[in-house]
# Entry
Amino acid sequence: MKTVLVTEALHPVFYDRMHTAGVATEVLAEGADVQQLINSMRSVQGLALRGRFRIGAELMDKAPLLQVIGRAGSGLELIDLEAARQRNIICLNSPEGNCDSVAEHAIGMLLLLMHQLRKADAELRQGIFNRNGNWGNELKGKTVGIIGLGHTGGALARKLQNWGLTLLAVDPYRTEHWPSYVQQVEMHELQARADVLSFHVPLTDETRGMISRQWLQQLQRRPIVVNAARGGLAKTADLADALQQNWIGGLCLDTFEEEALGFEALSFQSPDLQRLSAHPQVVMTPHVAGWSQQSWEGISAVLADKMLKVLLD
# Structure
C-alpha cells in the first residue's frame, strides 16, 4: 500500500479520498522539526504540504520512494522544482480549490477601501455620525487590470464581468482561450489605463520584486493596487513610497514581504510596514484570502484527486 505523509492538517475530505482509493496517510506530529520530517519521509510515496517546510534536494534524497509532492494552495515556491524534476518527482498545487475565496477577498478589500467602510464603522463606534465625510467611490465604470489570468485571476474576472467595468489583463503564459469580457493587453497599456491593479501571479525568479519603484512610477491613473498573491512581489518600502509620492491611490494587501517562511507570522518591526499600517488608504489582512470554510475543503479535495492520479497511475 502506498502512503502519503501530511505535514500539516488538511480537511477530512483529503484523508477520506485517499483511504477510499486504497492509499494510506500519515500525519506529521504538530511542531515536528526537520529531522522528524526526514524520519517520516523515508518510506512514503507522497508528500502533502501547506507551508511549514522548504523541500529541497537534500530532503528529497531522504525519500527514495517519493513520487509526488502536493501543495495545499497555489504557490510552489517552497519546493525546489528543478531538483524534483531531476528526481522524477511530480509537483502539484491546488489553486482550483481556493481561487474563488481569493477573488472574493480581493473584491471585499477593494470595496472596503473605496467606500470608506472601515473609517465609517470606526467613527460610528465612537459615536460619530458623519455622512458627508464618508462618501464612497463606485467601482462601476472603472478599469480593472489583472496581472495573471490563471485560476485566481480568472475567478476575479468572472466575478467582475457584470459590474459595468472594463477588464484588462496581462498574462504571457496563458494558453487557454481568452474570455470575451477580458481585453488582453501589454503591461505598459495596463499601467496607463487601470484604476485598479490586482496581482495573481506565483512567486518565481521572474516575478519577485516585479512591483518595483520603477514599475510604480510608470502608473498613470493613481490606481489602487491589490496584492493577494505573494508578499515577495513587492518591497514594502517601494509601496510606502508610492503612496507618499501619490503614484498610487491606495493599497489592499493580504501578503507581505516581511512574512515568515511558512506565512504563519509577520514581523511588525519593519518601519516601512509601520508606514503602511498608519496610512488611511491601506487595507491589510493576514494572508487569509485563500482560506474560507469552503476553500478549506476545496483545496484538500483537489489536492487529493491530483495526487491520486500520480500515485495510482
About this structure: Residues 8 and 31 are 9 Å apart (CA to CA). Residues 3-95+294-311 form a domain with the Rossmann fold fold (CATH 3.40.50.720). The first strand starts at residue 3 and ends at 6. The chain has two domains: 3-95+294-311, 99-284.
